[in-house]
Amino acid sequence: MSDQLKWFKSSYSDNEGGASVEVAHDDTIHVRDSKVAVSGPEFQVSVPAWSAFIAAVQPGA
After folding, report:
1. What is the mean pLDDT of residues 17-44?
2. What is the CB neighbour count within 10 angstroms for residue 32?
3. Ramachandran class of 32: left when φ > 0, alpha when ψ lies in -120 to 50, beta otherwise
């Protein structure tokens, strides 16, 4: 299923091979390391859990 998702690279990821995260969504949120995107693992969380995570880590929140 995840091969049909449209992945978006984080705006905080660097372009020099460092930290890089990609996110996609359908009924759940999918997260993976873009350095090993094809062969690496990904994890999935519910939309409410992702929203709570983002609210907790946003600067100034």
Report:
1. 83
2. 21
3. beta
52: tokens are 């709570």
Residue 55 backbone phi and psi in degrees, to 5: -60, -35
Alpha-carbon span 40 to 59, nearest angstrom: 29
Whole-model pTM: value is 0.69
SS3 per residue for the chain = CHHHCCCEECCCCCCCCCCCEEEEECCEEEEEEHHHCCCCCEEEEEHHHHHHHHHHHCCCC
- Contact assessment for residue 6 and residue 24, using Cβ atoms and an 8 Å cutoff: yes
